[in-house]
Write the structure tokens for this entry.
Amino acid sequence: FPSHDNTSSSEMFGGSVDEDGFQRETTKMVPVSPYGCTKLFGFSIVRNYRIAHKLHASNGILFNHESPRRGSNFVTNKVVKGAVMIKLGMMDKLEMGNLDAHRDWGHSKDYVKAMHMIVQHDTPNDWVVATGQTRSVRDMCKYVFDQLGMNYLDYVVQNEKFLRAEELPYLKGDSTKIRTTLGWGPEDTFESMMDEISIVTGK
């Protein structure tokens, strides 16, 4: 039988976090968004069919992954594009939502490698794919604006219209399982990922 990999999401965890500050394959899943709820259904049905019908089907629980190809409606590209436009005098302010939302951001190319390893593995399973580090949107703004020689506090403002109805405050994944079993690990850091997005966006 062919191998199948369902791309699940860290949003399935919602506000559920283990005592050590991580989310892993065994962490309770309590999604707080329609997207997270639908992802949890997909995750559950894949696991059900794997067990009940012996399918070679795995779930990759992917935490936030980004690249320069992201659209401006995603926070990484929005921050970079906003900072560049402010630097060029094309904008005065960057309006954001919750600056203190924390995410575990990795590079998409590292996560694609993880997905390939998952489908090639002999035994199907559920796998958290994450860097194991979390940063806030505020941290992201500070880093990007610092790189352009600006203080983000002078330009970034919070606008309530960008706040979620039910906020997902914190994500930090424990990818020990895929690291030890499949030998996966991210090559890019948060900084190198943001630098790449900034270079492409600034061209």
